[in-house]
């Protein structure tokens, strides 16, 4: 008799907890989001598990799954790429959200599709574009930027605009923040809001 073990892992952005996003969408939506990621195609990120299948995996009703999916769509943590057909349900792509914040102020949120085969490559492309300062249409092609309260996104100049004074935004670091994403967030801030990042007080 020969046993086996599945040693593969899924990943998630730590900021989902730090930002309060999990509390905002609720535990059911969070669980459904993970279930859809479980079914994601490695190369395309597309997943098409039925409501009943997701419900059975999570121990919740199909109606609860539907409400969770509606909440994920509203929160932009999920998008539908193909409508339901007679053969299968809707096709989804889960989305990763990264909030760029200074202190408790969210400047903007960056949203990237969860495609296992290319997610790390896409994040690296974004980071490289930020480090070099070069215009890289590929890096930002499938990235959605949602401005925080009091901010607007100028798509022509690719910069974040605000009427809020930089001195009014606190600059406090969270000791338990993930170092990689913290540094990446700082670089993104320098890229999309250069005037603001230069004026921020250093503590």
What is the gist of this entry?
Helix content is 39%, strand content 20%. It contains 9 helices and 7 strands; from the N terminus they run H-H-H-E-H-H-E-E-E-H-H-E-E-E-H-H. Residues 172-177 have low confidence and may be disordered.
Task: Explain what you see.
The chain has 203 residues and is an alpha+beta fold. The protein folds into 2 domains: 80 residues, Arc Repressor Mutant, subunit A (Orthogonal Bundle); 104 residues, no CATH class. Strand 3 and strand 4 form a beta hairpin. Helix 3 packs across helix 5 and helix 4 packs across helix 5. The chain is globular and about 55 Å long. The relative contact order is 0.13.
Write the layout of secondary structure elements.
Elements: H1 15-18, H2 21-25, H3 27-38, E1 46-47, H4 51-58, H5 62-74, E2 78-82, E3 91-102, E4 105-113, H6 119-132, H7 137-140, E5 143-147, E6 151-154, E7 159-162, H8 179-192, H9 194-199
Antiparallel strand pairs: 1-3, 2-3, 3-4, 4-5, 6-7
Helix pairs in contact: 3-4, 3-5, 4-5, 6-8
Largest beta-sheet characterization: 5 strands, antiparallel
Tertiary shape: globular
- Approximate strand percentage: 15-25%
Poorly predicted residue ranges: 172-177
Number of discrete domains: 2
Which short descriptors sum up this protein?
five-stranded antiparallel β-sheet; alpha+beta; two-stranded antiparallel sheet; Arc Repressor Mutant, subunit A; 2 domains; 39% helix
């Amino acid at each position: 008799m020969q046993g086996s073990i599945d040693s593969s892992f899924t990943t998630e952005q730590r900021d989902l907890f730090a930002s309060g996003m999990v509390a905002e969408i609720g535990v059911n939506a969070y669980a459904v989001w993970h279930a859809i990621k479980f079914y994601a195609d490695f190369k395309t990120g597309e997943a098409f598990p039925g409501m009943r299948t997701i419900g059975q995996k999570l121990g919740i009703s199909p109606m609860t799954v539907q409400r969770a999916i509606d909440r994920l769509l509203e929160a932009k943590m999920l998008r539908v790429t193909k409508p339901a057909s007679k053969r299968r349900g809707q096709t989804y792509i889960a989305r990763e959200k990264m909030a760029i914040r200074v202190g408790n102020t969210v400047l903007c949120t960056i949203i990237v599709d969860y495609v296992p085969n290319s997610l790390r490559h896409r994040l690296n492309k974004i980071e490289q574009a930020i480090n070099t300062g070069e215009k890289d249409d590929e890096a930002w092609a499938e990235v959605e930027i949602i401005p925080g309260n009091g901010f607007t996104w100028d798509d022509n100049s690719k910069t974040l605009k605000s009427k809020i004074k930089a001195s009014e935004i606190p600059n406090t670091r969270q000791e338990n923040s993930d170092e990689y994403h913290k540094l990446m967030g700082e670089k993104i801030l320098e890229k999309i809001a250069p005037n603001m990042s230069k004026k921020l007080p250093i503590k």
